Amino acid sequence: MVLRHSTRIIVGSSILILMVLLTAGIVWSQDAKKEVVPAYMDTYIGADADQVGSAKCLMCHPKRKPSNTFTHLALLDLDTNSPYYGFGCEGCHGPGGKHNGNKLGIINPNKLSPDEANQFCSKCHSDLRSYNYKSWLMSDHNAAGLDCLSCHGGHSENDKFLKEKDQTELCYSCHAEKRAEFSMRSHHPLKEGHITCDNCHNPHSGDNNNQLVAEGDELCFKCHGDKQGPFVFDHDLSPAMGGNGCLTCHFSHGGNADNLLRFPHRLCLQCHSDKTAEAHHPGTCWATGCHSQIHGSYTSELFFD
Ligand code: HEC
Ligand code: HEC
Ligand code: HEC
Ligand code: HEC
Ligand code: HEC
Ligand code: HEC
Ligand code: HEC
Ligand code: HEC
Ligand code: HEC
Fold first, then answer.
1. How many Å apart are CA 257 and CA 291, to the nearest integer?
2. Which of 146, 191, 216, 293 has CB atoms 3.0–4.6 Å from 141's, for a disulfide?
3. Residue 161 alpha carbon, nearest atom of ligand 2
4. Is the pLDDT higher at 237 or at 129?
5. 177 CA to middle of ligand 6, Å?
6. For residue 87, what pLDDT band results from cuts at 50, 70 and 90?
7. Which ligand 7 atom is nearest residue 194's CA?
């Protein structure tokens, strides 16, 4: 009797758990739909469409079956414990209940306006890691009318979901003149594969000028810490001293003189014009034995060593 009773409880509660799971699944999708579906979606799919599940989409779109390297594989997770469970294809394309084998009733991201495309990605990526939507809105890229899909591809398998396999090639596809700069005699080692554009620029952020990851010399110090000092004798060329920090003397991308120098001949004379006579001395002002510690020195006021 007692045994039967408890069996009933076990059977009963597992049915209950099952029901909770099932309804959780359904209710969850509807909630998720409300949460993640921006208003514009209704104009494409109708307000009351239901989710049908990824398996159904794949019956008619077998080519879109994601491989194991699909960036958004997590959305297709069938594990009910996954925080992303229930999104599926429809997490991006919207509920497919009214899509019956033609172009209607489903979202084709390629057809969204820039504003809609940005909302499309941002409904899930409002604040993921380095990407921040508010900051994006202030960026030159946003101002120029780019949207997420200018750089990221719908079914891309690239780890950052980029349209091009290689980030540098992606940037060159619009900033063609930068390829020439990074091919000059002296250049930051991009084509050698040691750094990438995003080491210095955040493609999404308008927090700093030129979408840089850090402002002014702070950027350069990230990798050239030895030039930061503090030195006993500092050649301080900050804007307050009438200079432009490191960029007073160096190009950021590439140049034809050694060491990314801007003007190899009159580099120093642009400010120390009183030294013109000495400038007939052969070699550069920073040749060995002269002002060779041009960034700053611990011992020499004249940056000799
Ligand atoms: C009964 C078959 C069928 C099912 C199920 C189906 N589709 Fe489609 N889908 C089609 C056909 C056919 C087209 C039109 C293709 C064309 O004209 O090039 C299409 C078009 C699309 C388009 C492009 C729409 C456009 O504006 O160009 C997308 C995106 C899409 N489907 C995604 C999905 C998703 C996501 C699901 C699951 C929710 C799904 N489909 C389910 C058959 C289906
Ligand atoms: C339905 C929600 C959803 C939508 C819509 C969505 N994503 Fe994602 N995205 C995710 C999830 C979840 C991950 C995986 C996160 C993880 O594994 O930690 C992800 C991963 C990514 C990654 C890789 C992150 C990394 O650090 O490697 C990029 C890049 C990305 N998404 C960009 C986009 C872009 C661009 C769009 C618009 C075309 C978009 N996503 C639309 C949910 C979404
Ligand atoms: C100009 C090209 C470009 C545009 C436009 C762009 N991205 Fe990216 N995105 C990148 C590159 C390059 C990376 C990889 C570098 C990195 O990690 O910062 C990236 C990385 C990401 C990541 C993963 C890393 C992180 O920072 O969390 C997410 C998420 C992301 N982008 C979302 C978006 C969304 C959402 C939009 C639209 C509002 C967008 N991106 C627009 C180029 C772009
Ligand atoms: C992270 C969001 C995301 C997920 C998840 C996703 N898609 Fe897409 N899909 C896109 C984007 C963005 C595009 C447009 C860019 C492109 O064509 O690759 C697209 C394009 C498509 C197209 C082609 C539309 C055209 O122009 O003809 C089809 C069909 C499609 N997806 C089906 C699916 C199916 C089926 C699934 C689930 C297995 C799925 N998608 C999952 C974002 C997504
Ligand atoms: C070592 C750091 C660094 C790297 C790597 C880098 N940049 Fe820059 N970039 C800068 C700095 C600093 C500025 C602002 C000062 C200037 O104009 O020199 C700048 C300015 C720019 C500008 C605006 C001014 C102009 O010159 O047109 C663009 C566009 C640009 N970078 C694109 C790129 C692209 C594309 C890549 C990769 C192919 C890249 N940068 C790689 C540091 C870098
Ligand atoms: C789809 C085209 C496109 C792609 C791809 C693209 N950009 Fe841009 N970028 C633009 C446009 C357009 C502007 C605004 C006009 C200008 O300043 O050139 C811009 C502006 C910038 C600026 C600011 C320029 C300034 O004057 O302050 C930087 C820095 C930059 N892009 C870097 C990058 C980097 C790094 C990548 C690769 C991750 C990239 N861009 C990819 C089109 C693109
Ligand atoms: C993401 C890291 C990184 C950042 C940020 C960075 N650099 Fe570099 N820089 C490098 C690397 C790597 C080299 C090559 C070093 C080598 O070959 O030994 C280099 C080389 C140089 C060189 C020597 C070039 C030559 O032809 O030998 C100069 C000058 C230079 N950087 C100046 C700067 C300035 C100025 C800034 C700030 C605008 C800056 N760097 C920002 C990584 C960086
Ligand atoms: C007054 C001009 C001037 C300024 C300002 C300047 N540099 Fe230089 N830099 C030079 C000269 C000249 C050389 C070549 C030195 C040599 O050949 O010994 C050089 C060489 C370099 C080199 C390559 C050789 C080495 O010592 O590693 C790096 C890296 C570098 N500078 C980074 C920086 C950074 C970072 C800043 C900003 C904190 C900066 N420079 C500011 C003039 C300058
Ligand atoms: C943007 C202007 C500017 C440029 C370019 C510049 N300097 Fe200077 N330099 C200054 C200023 C201002 C001072 C004094 C303040 C200080 O110590 O920072 C100074 C100080 C010096 C001193 C210390 C002795 C003195 O007169 O106070 C030496 C030596 C020197 N610079 C050498 C050079 C050399 C060599 C170059 C070229 C590689 C160079 N400078 C490029 C502005 C500049």
1. 18
2. 146
3. 29
4. 237
5. 11
6. confident
7. 12
Comparing CA positions, the residue from 76, 82, 86 lying closest to residue 25 is 86
* Measured distance CA(213)–CA(196) in Å, rounded: 12
253 lines ligand 5 (CB under 6 A): yes
Among 220, 217, 216, 229, smallest CA distance to 295 is for: 229
User: How confident is the model over 145-172, as pLDDT tens digits?
Assistant: 999 999 998 787 777 889 888 899 999 9
> What would the pLDDT profile of 99-126 be if each residue is shown by its tens digit?
988 999 999 998 998 888 888 887 777 6
* Ligand in closest contact with the CA of 204: 3
pLDDT over 70 at 19, yes or no: no
Q: What is the rounded distance in angstroms from the CA atom of residue 179 to the CA atom of residue 276?
A: 36
Distance in angstroms (rounded) separating the CA atoms of residues 9 and 21: 18
Q: CB 36: neighbour CB atoms within 10 A? A: 15
